[in-house]
Amino acid sequence: LRGRRPLEPADLDAIEEALLAADMGVPAVAEAMEVLRARSREVWTEGRDAMRGLLRQELLRQLEQPAPAARTAARPWVVFLVGVNGVGKTTTIGKLARAERAAGRTALLVAADTFRAAAAEQLQVWAERTGAAFHRGAEGADPSAVLTDGLRAARSRGHDTVLVDTAGRLHTKGNLMAELAKMSRVAAREVPDAPHETLLVLDATLGGNALAQAREFAKAGGVTGLVLTKLDGTAKGGVAVAVVRELGVPIRHVGLGEAAEDLVPFDASSFVDALVG
Amino acid sequence: ALSDRLQGVFRSLRGRGALTPEDVDQALREIRLALLEADVHFKVVKQFLERVRVRAVGQDVLKSLTPDQAVLRVVRDEMVALFGGGDAARLQGSSRLPAVVLMTGLQGSGKTTSTAKLARWLVQGGHHPLLVSTDVYRPAAREQLRTLGQQNNLQVHHPESLTQPRAILESALTEARSVGHDFLLVDTAGRLHIDDELMAELEELKRASQPTEVLYVADAMTGQDAVKSAEEFHKRVGTTGIVLTKLDGDARGGAALSAASVTGCPIKFAGVGERVDELEPFQADRMVGRILG
Ligand SMILES: Nc1nc2c(ncn2[C@@H]2O[C@H](COP(=O)(O)OP(=O)(O)OP(=O)(O)O)[C@@H](O)[C@H]2O)c(=O)[nH]1
Ligand SMILES: Nc1nc2c(ncn2[C@@H]2O[C@H](COP(=O)(O)OP(=O)(O)OP(=O)(O)O)[C@@H](O)[C@H]2O)c(=O)[nH]1
Ligand SMILES: [Mg+2]
Ligand SMILES: [Mg+2]
To answer: Would strands B213-219 and A107-112 be described as parallel, antiparallel, or unpaired?
Structure first.
C-alpha cells in the first residue's frame, strides 16, 4: 500500500470543479461525486489520478449503453438533422454528404429550411463541394412540401441516402416543434419507416439548456442519435452525458471544425478523457 | 425559485434573534447552487458570492426582519451592477464618419442576424448605416447578409469580385465615406478564440477600421465556456459591448453574467427572435430575475 492515501477534500474539490467547468451540470456532477465518494471507500486510491480513473469508468458506463442501430438496406435511407439555431446542422449535413460519397453511396441534400436567409444557398454550396444532388423549394415555401418533393425525387432517381436540412428552431416554440412533427409524418408517408434517423445536433458550448432541448425534440419528432459539434473549441460538451442518459440514444458523430472532413465517429473514451482531465 | 429557497433557509433560523455570518453562509450556498444551475461559470460564482457576502454580513441584513428579502436585494443589486446598470443600449458615434461597429463572436452565435437587427435599430433612430460582410469562409455568408438587407430595406455593400476580408472592408469604408453613411456595421466570420490565425485577422480588421464599437455577440444558451471565449475576444480585440442572442428561448442565461463579469463590458442589446425587428435594449433587472430563477 506504499504511496496510497485516502481522498482529500482538496482533491474532491478540484475534480468537482473540472466537471462543472465541462458543463456536466449540477445534478450530474453531484451524482458523480457521490459515486466517487462511495467507491473511494472500497478501494485504496492514489489521490487524484486514481479518482479520475474511477470517474472515467463511471462516465464510460453511462455513455456506452445505447448502441447505435445499424443501417438497413432501406432505400433511400432518410436522415433528418434537427436542433436549435446555429448549432451546426447545415454544416454537419455537408460533412455527412462527404462521408456518404466516401462510402460509395449517392446522396440527395434537401433544403427544408425555407425560412432563414440564404439557407438553401448555403446547403447548395455543400452539395456542390461533396458531389451530392440537391433539392430545394422557393424561399418561404412549406417545408413539408419541399420534403415531399425531395423524397419523391430521391425515390425516382434511386439515391441511396437523403439528408434533410431543417430550420433551426427553439424548442420553446410550439408551432415550430409541431412543424417538425408534421415533417416526420410526411416523410413516413413517402418512404416507409422514414425518417430512419433523426439526429439532434448539440453545440458543445451549450449549457444546461441542452437537456430541455433534447426532451422537446424527442417528444416532437423523435430523436435516434446525437451529433456534438464544435468540440474543436474549448468547450467540453459535458451536458451530452445527461442527454444520452435521459434519451437513451447514442452520440453518433462529433464535429471538429468547419470543413467537410471535420466529422468523426463518437469515441466515448477520448470524450470522457477530455471531461475528466 | 431562489426567493423560495432563501425563505426556506431563513425560516429554519427564525426566532433565534439576529442572524450570524454562518447563517448568511447557508444562504450563500443556496445562491451558489442557483447560479451554477443557471450556467454561470463557477469562478464567476465564487467572485460574485464574495461581493455578496461582504454586504450580506452588514447590520442591515443581520438585523432585518425579513433577512431572506434583504439578502435577495443584495444579490439583485450586485448583479445589476455587474451588468453595467443596464442603460447601455447605445452605439458610439463618431465625428469622423462612418462610425464603425465590428461584430465578433463564436460560430453560430447570431452575428449576421444581429448585424441586420442593429442596422434596422439605427435606421429607426434616424441614422444611415451601411452593412458589409467580411465572412469569406462560410458558404453563402455574404448572401445571407445581402438577403437580410433586401428583406428589410437596409443598405448592404457587396463587392462581388473581392475575396479578402481586408479589401472588402476598405471598399466598404470608401463607399460609406463617399455616400455619407454615419455608421458602418461590419459582420465577421465566426471564429474560435483559440484560432490564432483568425483572431489575428480580426485584430487586423480592427486596426484597418478603427471602430467605435467592437461588439461580442454571445449565445444566451452558452454554458461554462462563455468565460473563456468572452475573455479571449476581449483581450485580443478589446470588445466594448456584448449582444446577447436567443433570449427568446428558456435558457437561464448565466453566460451573460460570466461574459459581463470577466470582460467588464456592458450587455447592450438582447436578441429575442429570428426576425430582424426582434432586438431589444438589454434590461438588466429582467436578466437578473431570469438567472436567479
Ligand atoms: N469550429 C466549428 N464550427 C462549426 C462546427 N460545425 C458547424 N460550425 C460552424 O457553426 C456555424 C453555424 O453552422 P450552421 O451549419 O449554419 O448551423 P445551423 O444549425 O445549420 O444554423 P441554422 O440553420 O441557422 O439554425 C458555421 O459558421 C459553421 O461553420 C464544428 O464542428 N466546429
Ligand atoms: N431564436 C433566435 N434565433 C436567433 C437569434 N439571433 C440569431 N438567431 C438565429 O441563430 C442562427 C445563427 O444566426 P447567424 O446570424 O447566422 O449567426 P452567426 O454568428 O452569423 O453565424 P456564423 O457566421 O456562422 O458564425 C440563425 O438561425 C438565426 O436566425 C435570436 O435572438 N433568437
Ligand atoms: Mg442551417
Ligand atoms: Mg454569420
So the answer is: unpaired
Q: Is B134 in the pocket of ligand 2 (CB under 6 A)?
A: no
Tell me, letter by letter, the H, E, C secondary structure of A146-176. Answer: HHHHHHHHHHHHCCCEEEEEECCCCCCCHHH
CA of A84 to the centre of ligand 2 (A): 10
Closest atom, ligand 2, to C-alpha of A173: 1
Cell of B106: 463564436
Q: Is B249 on the interface with A (CB under 8 A)?
A: yes
pLDDT at B145 > cutoff 90 = yes
C-alpha cell at A10: 482538496
8 Å CB contact between B37 and B1: no
Q: Average pLDDT, whole number, for chain B? A: 93
Give tens-digit pLDDT for A97-154: 999 999 999 999 999 999 999 999 999 999 999 999 999 999 899 999 999 999 999 9
Residue of A nearest to B228 (CA): A234
Q: What confidence category does residue A1 fall into, taking pLDDT thresholds of 50, 70 and 90?
A: very low
User: Looking at the partner chain, which of B141, B151, B225 has a beta carbon nearest the beta carbon of A235?
Assistant: B225
Q: How far apart are CA B6 and CA B69, in angstroms?
A: 8
DSSP code at position A206:
B
State the closest ligand 2 atom to the C-alpha of A168, by its place in the atom list counted from 1. 27
In this structure, which amino acid lies at residue B255?
A
Residue A36: HSE in the Cβ half-sphere, 13 Å Cα cutoff: 30
Pairing of strands A251-255, A263-265: antiparallel
In tens, the pLDDT along B213-222 reads 999 999 999 9
Our answer on whether the CB atom of A232 is closer than 6 Å to any ligand 1 atom is yes
Mark yes or no for CB contact A88/B108 under 8 Å: yes
Contacts of B289 (CB under 8 A, 6+ apart): none
